[in-house]
Design a protein that fits this description.
Shape: elongated
Mean pLDDT: 83
CATH superfamily of the largest domain: Spore Coat Polysaccharide Biosynthesis Protein SpsA, Chain A
Oligomer: single chain
Number of domains: 2
Low-confidence stretches: none
Helix content: 40-55%
Distance between the termini: 20 Å
Length: about 325
C-alpha cells in the first residue's frame, strides 16, 4: 500500500499536561529527520489535570496526532491496549509521556524490527536516573521474571518498546500486565524478542505515579499471568488435575480406614485402639476428598467463565480527536 504508515507511536498519559507538547515536538523531529510516515496516538488515561486539553491542542496543529480519552483512570495496560487496537503502522513504538524515554531511539528500534526481523524489541535503561530505592527492587524483579519466563532481557518494564504490528494485534493487555508484554508475546508465539540499551532521562515535569507497592503487585501479577497464559484455554487441566489427585489420595485414606474397621470386626477380632473419628487419617481423608471435589468444580466453572468473558473489554472511551 503506498499510503501505509511506517510507525505508530503510542503514548499512554496520566496527568502529564506539562510534557505533552514538548514530547510531541520531540517525536515529530525524530520522525521527520528520517522521513518516516507516522502517526502519534496519545491515550489520556482519565487524567484530572489538563492533559486532554493539551492533546486536543497539538492535534489541531498536526494531523498526524490522534487522541483517545478514557472516562476515568483504568491504568497503563488499558491505555496501551486501546492504542494497540488503533495503531496502523508497520512498527508500533510505545514510550512514556514523562519525557524520560528518548524518541531519538525510535529509528534504530524501527530498523531492528524491519531489518533484523525481531517481533519485539525492549528498551534497557542500563543507566537509570532513578533513586536506589527503585533501582534495586527493579533489578530483583527483572531477575525473577527472566528466570520464570526464560526471556533473556534486562528491563521488562521499560516503557520504550518496538513491536511488529501483528504482535500488538494478537496480544491482550489488561489489569497491570503491561509489565509483562514480552512474556505475553512469547506465550502467543512471538519468540524473537530483542533488546536495545536506551537513554533514560530524569523526570522533568510532575511526579512519578508508582510507589514501592508496584513491586509487590508486580510479583502477584507475575504469578497471575504465569497461570492465566498457561491455562486460560484449559483451566480444567490445572484444577482438574490437582482435584483428581487430591480426591484419589482421599479415597485411598478412606479405603484404608474402612479396611482397618472391617479387619477389626470380622477378621482379627481385636478392637481398634481408637474410634475412626478420633484418628487423624479420618480427617485427612475427609479434607482431601472435599478439596478434590471443590477443585474439580472450580475448573468446571472456570471453563464456563472463560467462554462467557471472551472478547470483553475493560475500559470505556469518552472522547476522541483525529480519529
Amino acid at each position: 500500500m503506498p499510503d501505509e504508515l511506517d510507525i505508530s507511536v503510542v503514548v499512554p498519559a496520566y496527568n502529564e499536561a506539562g510534557s505533552i507538547v514538548e514530547l510531541s515536538e520531540w517525536i515529530n523531529r525524530a520522525m521527520e529527520a528520517h522521513d518516516f510516515r507516522y502517526e502519534m496516538l496519545f491515550i489520556d488515561d482519565g487524567s484530572n489535570d489538563h492533559t486532554w486539553e493539551a492533546i486536543c491542542e497539538i492535534a489541531k496543529k498536526n494531523t498526524r496526532i490522534k487522541g483517545i480519552r478514557f472516562n476515568r483512570n483504568y491504568g497503563k495496560s488499558a491505555a496501551l491496549n486501546a492504542g494497540f487496537k488503533q495503531a496502523a503502522g508497520v512498527v508500533v513504538i510505545t514510550l512514556d509521556a514523562d519525557l524520560q524515554d528518548n524518541p531519538d531511539e525510535i529509528p534504530e528500534l524501527y530498523r531492528m524490527v524491519t531489518e533484523e526481523g525481531y517481533d519485539l524489541v525492549s528498551g534497557w535503561k542500563k543507566k537509570r536516573r532513578d533513586p536506589i530505592s527503585k533501582r534495586w527492587p527493579s533489578r530483583f524483579f527483572n531477575f525473577v521474571t527472566r528466570k520464570i519466563s526464560g526471556i533473556k532481557i534486562h528491563d521488562f518494564n521499560c516503557g520504550l518498546k518496538a513491536y511488529r504490528n501483528e504482535v500488538v494485534k494478537h496480544i491482550n493487555v489488561y489489569g497491570e500486565m503491561h509489565r509483562y508484554i514480552p512474556v505475553i508475546a512469547k506465550w502467543q508465539g512471538y519468540t524473537n524478542i530483542g533488546e536495545k540499551v536506551v537513554e533514560h532521562h530524569p523526570r522533568k515535569y510532575g511526579k512519578t505515579k508508582y510507589g514501592i507497592e508496584r513491586f509487590v503487585y508486580g510479583f502477584l501479577d507475575l504469578i497471575s499471568i504465569t497461570f492465566v497464559y498457561r491455562f486460560k484455554k484449559r483451566p480444567m487441566h490445572f484444577f482438574g488435575a490437582w482435584g483428581s489427585l487430591s480426591f484419589v489420595f482421599g479415597l485411598i485414606f478412606t479405603i484404608k480406614i474402612i479396611w482397618d474397621k472391617m479387619d477389626a470386626i470380622y477378621f482379627s477380632k481385636i478392637p481398634l485402639e481408637r474410634e475412626i473419628t478420633d484418628q487423624p487419617m479420618f480427617f485427612l481423608a475427609l479434607v482431601a476428598v472435599i478439596i478434590g471435589v471443590q477443585l474439580f468444580l472450580a475448573g468446571f466453572l472456570a471453563e464456563l467463565t472463560t467462554l462467557q468473558n471472551a472478547g470483553k473489554k475493560e475500559y470505556f472511551i469518552s472522547d476522541k480527536v483525529g480519529i
